[in-house]
Design a protein that fits this description.
- The chain is an alpha+beta fold.
- The protein has one domain.
- Helices cover about 40% and strands about 20% of the residues.
- It has a six-stranded antiparallel β-sheet with strand order 3-4-5-6-7-8. A two-stranded antiparallel ribbon has the order 1-2.
- A hairpin with an 8-residue loop joins β5 and β6.
- α1 crosses α5 and α2 crosses α3.
- The longest helix has about 30 residues.
């Protein structure tokens, strides 16, 4: 592992990239799913300054409780779990004590209040949320996490899958995977090859709100290798 003094600049870039690639899109998605529009209507009666009445009305329209906002909420939550988990793994690797299993990761991020405590269940690596169940998968050998969001029913949207780091992603920006059907979803085994994920009926989706410059992407790849390879 690199000396602490030389790795911190790369860690700073990684932190900024996580913020830009994931946190900002989540905020945008939450705002769009929760509040659609605000209208301010100005009404004037009569002519001139005398007798003029101005009325300002603000109306917030909220999306109905349907598949689209539920999927956006689940994507926000599964991405939050992925970022918190990977951050904990990287921090442990930098100290020379990477997590041993998913229970240690979940315990660590819950103690730091990175996710709500009421999401935790008695099942190893399983989190229960209002519109779905999240399964955290962890590979100690490669220091990788995979987060799978399973909807409660078809009205909660498709299955969602995020991998960090996404080592097979060499051509597109930050992405996640989404099942192409709402019923009879086939969930891939942990860290299954990309070809297996695709053949099971999943397709990739991009976080399109932001793009990372090639130079910073190269720095992130270098940083990731320096942490995960000893």
């Amino acid at each position: 592992m690199r000396e602490r003094g030389s790795i911190w600049p790369i860690v700073s870039v990684a932190g900024g990239a996580f913020l830009v690639l994931f946190v900002l899109p989540l905020i945008i998605q939450r705002q769009r799913s929760g509040e659609m529009a605000t209208v301010e209507a100005h009404v004037s009666i009569g002519e001139g300054e005398t007798g003029r009445v101005s009325q300002v009305v603000s109306t917030n329209y909220r999306w109905p409780n349907s598949e689209v906002p539920r999927t956006a909420e689940r994507l926000r939550d599964v991405t939050a779990v992925a970022i918190a988990s990977m951050t904990y793994v990287v921090e442990g690797a930098m100290r020379g004590t990477p997590p041993r299993n998913v229970d240690q990761i979940l315990d660590g991020i819950v103690r730091r209040d990175l996710i709500p405590r009421d999401w935790v269940t008695s099942q190893s690596g399983v989190l229960h949320m209002p519109n779905g169940t999240v399964h955290l998968r962890y590979s100690p050998a490669s220091l990788s996490v995979e987060v799978l969001s399973v909807p409660h029913d078809r009205s909660d949207g498709p299955g969602l899958l995020i991998r960090l780091p996404d080592s097979e992603n060499t051509t597109v920006g930050a992405r996640y995977f989404e099942s192409m059907q709402l019923d009879g979803i086939l969930y891939p085994n942990p860290f299954a090859p990309l070809s297996t994920v695709i053949s099971a009926g999943w397709q990739q989706r991009q976080f399109k709100q932001t793009q990372l410059p090639d130079s910073e992407k190269a720095q992130l790849e270098q940083w990731s290798k320096s942490v995960t390879q000893k």
